[in-house]
Amino acid sequence: MSSIPTMEGVTSQIVETPRLKVHILTAGADDGVPVLFVHGNGSSATFWEETMVALPAGCRGIALDLRGYGDTEPLPVDATLGLDDMVGDVLALVDALDLGTYHIVGHSMGGGIVMKVAIARPEDLLSITLVDTMSPYGYSGSKGAAGTPCYEDGAPAGAASVNPDFVRLMGEKERGVENPASPRNVLRQFYVKPPFVPAREEELLSSMLSLRVGEDWYPGDALPSAHWPGAAPGTKGIVNAFSRKYFDASAIVDIAPKPPVLWVRGADDLVVSNAAMWDIAALGALGFVPGWPGAEECPPQPMLDQTRAVLEAYQANGGSYREEVIADAGHSPFIEKPEAFNALFHAFLRS
After folding, report:
1. pLDDT tens across 82-113, in order?
2. Domain containing 15 — which CATH number?
3. How far is CA 161 from CA 28, 109, 144, 164, in A?
């Protein structure tokens, strides 16, 4: 059962799969059309509860905790697989629940996992919804709309690019506000647009703090590099797994069949943008990380341009997509602006 209190109408259970024990939250009729939700980094299924409870009649919401998050079995993350271990976990859950065809939704890192699920088994998907998704070329370490790696060893992305104070405070399960890098302050400053404070902030903070900290999970290990800032992604952990060194979901443009795609994002997202505040190259360009080699060699990753270019290619190859921007929202518009988000999302599901 969930270690985090759930909303009324949400059920918690553990599902045994051949790969691992997966914790899920569900809402809606058991015989409804499945809508599978995949959370982002530093969160868990808890983030989707309001969205699942608000689903249209006839839908069954299912949100899982990924490995190393929430109450799912904390198997290690092999970074060299580029999130494919998590993709395998999702598909094992789909099979264990015998979902058949289903809608799938991914937030942030979860969007990258959803893209790879679509590459693996597109025939199962009724639709794809990407919410403030990471780029199809991962997070940090690439340039240009085509996602060209900045350096062959993956620098400057990976575990070493994460604020060590934040990692320490996550490991200590810190719930205060005294340190600017505390998880609660990060939630308030980056997960949503200030001054918005979520009604279920305590549960969302507990969800953040459910992430396992260490080399096998968050952030992972680092390797020395001759390139700025002196470190490259290692072979373990989640931040390395979604770096450009290992992650590439651009093959989604060639899948068949091609489910319709809805790309929704907050207009004021600081986590995923063309100058994201968690991209070390963007911080270098602003002077916060010394030694930045310049925009030609290591520019801020144009995350939105990369996603748009891949989705345009998807459409040119016979698919369809819509990009929707929710005003006055940050990285989690489904929590910040639920009415606006649900209006777009529900209409998309019905169509």
Report:
1. 999 999 999 999 999 999 999 999 999 999 99
2. 3.40.50.1820
3. 40, 16, 20, 9
Task: Give the global pTM.
Answer: 0.98
With CA atoms as reference, report the closest residue to 126 among 145, 149, 110, 103.
Answer: 103
- Whether 317 is covered by a domain: the verdict is yes
Continuous H helices in the chain: 49-53, 84-97, 109-120, 164-171, 183-186, 201-209, 238-241, 280-285, 303-316, 333-336, 338-350
Going by C-beta distance under 8 Å and a sequence separation of 6 or more, which residues neighbour residue 290? none
Handedness of CA 60, 65, 70, 74 (dihedral sign): positive
Residues of the domain holding 63: 11-350
d(CA 225, CA 154): 9
Q: Which amino acid is at 249?
A: A
Chain segment 157-179, per-residue pLDDT in tens = 999 999 999 999 999 999 999 99
